[in-house]
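Kindly review this protein for my students:
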Amino acid sequence: MGCDGSRIECPRWTELEAHMGKGSSEASAPTAWVTAFVHLGSGLLWCWRIGKGTADERLHLRQMLSLLPVNALVVADAASMGYELARAILQHSQSFLLRISSKVRLYALDKTPIEQ
């Protein structure tokens, strides 16, 4: 199950501006944040969350974990890294494959040499 989030610009309607707020500047249109899970084998949109443009993609992902099948493999980009999120995925009896950035430090309990 692949997960990703995107910020999208909304129409400049009064109701949307009141509910979603402005984008990055006062002159910008309201924005929404959409986080979705897609079944990678079939391309089926599985579940999604929509929030204000400032929404937290990791929070959205955590909220949707209970909607995924047991033993699902969660595949996500670097925005989804972090110990707490990894722990939440494992607590839902799911596995993960997360792309991480070069700034992330990984530690091995057995003190494996860095070359390996």
